[in-house]
């Protein structure tokens, strides 16, 4: 596994560029071909319920406008990647570092696996490790935080495997159907990540 700009050989009509290639997933830059699958994911409430996104209809035009801003570099202090399934090279989700602060060396992590047949296969865990490694090694971050919810047990397990740990709980801060759920705050430090993960991105001269 390496951090190299490279062309893979996807089993699709189009070939995409990948920045980071892991064992199960590959990560590449955001482009307009993401519009159709992302529009479908964001309108699937079963998907957005787990990601914490609003359970509201989203137009194709609105989705495309957001992707254009992302692909055009208009979103400041933000780095996003498309997640591809390694075996098929189809787009299955997105992962991003938001609110990047280079002075205090921190950021917020977010991930959405939109293809439900790709859930519970370890893709989220590997993607999270890849993004953390990128954030710590390339961007020089020290603290990455995320927010999830008490009903999303699978996500908490994936984040823990990747290096995150629970640092706080905002009690009964999320409400669906009259039922209250806790908001779970997790974070990972660069020092903690390095102690449990072999670096995925190898810099020149490193061993």
From TrEMBL:
One Gene Ontology MF term: acyltransferase activity, transferring groups other than amino-acyl groups
Keyword Ribosomal protein recorded: no
Pfam families (UniProt xref): Acetyltransf_3
PROSITE patterns per the UniProt record, alphabetical: GNAT
Domain of life assignment: Bacteria
Keyword Transferase part of the UniProt annotation: yes
Record key words, sorted: Transferase
Gene3D superfamilies tied to this protein: 3.40.630.30
Protein name: GCN5-related N-acetyltransferase
Annotated organism of origin: Ktedonobacter racemifer DSM 44963
